[in-house]
Amino acid sequence: MTSPSRVLTSIGAYVVLALAAVVTLGPFLLSVLTAFKSPGQFASDGSLTAPAPFLLDNFVTLLTGPAEFGNAIFVTVAVTAVIVVFQLGFSVLAAYAFARIDFAGRRVLFWAYLSGLMVPNIVLVIPLYLMMVELGLRNTFWGLVLPFMFGSPYAIFLLREYFRGIPTDLVDAARIDGAGHWRILGSIIVPLSKPILATLTLITIVSQWNSFLWPLVITTGPDWRVITVATASLQSQYNGNWTLVMAATTLALVPLVVLFLIFQKQVVRSITISGFK
Fold first, then answer.
1. Mean local confidence (pLDDT), 187-206
2. S-S: 230 plus which of 72, 84, 88, 89, CB 3.0-4.6 Å?
3. Please, are residues 98 and 159 in contact by the beta-carbon 8 Å criterion?
4. Is 64 in contact with 57 (CB distance < 8 Å)?
5. Arithmetic mean of pLDDT, 204-218
6. Distance between CA atoms of 125 and 164, rounded to whole angstroms?
7. Alpha carbons 119 and 122: distance in angstroms, whole number
8. Which residues contact 216 (CB under 8 A, 6 or more apart)?
9. Whether pTM exceeds 0.85
């Protein structure tokens, strides 16, 4: 029979978790509810009541009106896709070299590169901006993506540790059969690393999709405006029309939720495997 103290402990844990869920999910629910209201409904009914009726006017205005939000979505998708492909590609190559190739100064070079994690991103904004200006890439697509294409210290660290956990016998057997580094990487390392690669893909997509400071600094005007900058500009462009701003926030949120639902099994599996190791 369960003791009263254990029951109270369980109830307290569920109460804390429920409160945490409300605090975490509340802003998202508020955003969705407000997005389907007209400004009149929002002013009269408040923000926590359900729309009556549900209206799509805000989304139509965003995608077809002068806000040019559709272009911002397209630019954000393109920027995110290019950065994810190149960043993960270079991170895989670097992590494999640090994990499986023995060369002089490997550990020193790895920890020197990893020290970049300790440098705040805000410190790099001005040097990167000056570099892009000198290259003539200000307010261009490549100015948005170039600083983030060539690997990530965080991704390289995680991949290196994961690659080192793959049994050495598999790699040695492949070498005996005549496989080189490219064959080992493509036929053994990458297929066995799908969970951690899926997790890093999701993390990279979320970080780049939500990127705000660098796109704000490197671009001017609506041509290369990303979704975060476009959402922020709505507050002044439409004089605080919060239903429109919340519609933009909802549109920005939906792809991330869909991606998480697709990759959640791989994310959980990567965490489970890493914890087991």
1. 87
2. 72
3. no
4. no
5. 90
6. 33
7. 9
8. 229, 232
9. no
How far apart (Å, rounded) are the C-alpha atoms in residues 127 and 124?
6
Quick check: 153 and 89 in contact, CB under 8 A? no
Kindly indicate the confidence band of residue 48, based on its pLDDT and cuts at 50, 70 and 90: confident
Nearest to 84 by CA among 277, 272, 274, 255: 255
What is the model's pLDDT at position 35? Answer: 85
Query: Which pLDDT does position 2 carry in this prediction?
Result: 60
Which residues, 6+ apart, have CB-to-CB distance to 27 below 8 Å? none
CB neighbour class for 245 (10 Å; exposed up to 12, middle 13-18, buried from 19): buried
- Asked if 202 and 259 touch (Cβ cutoff 8 Å), the reply is yes
Q: Tell me, what's the pLDDT at 88?
A: 92
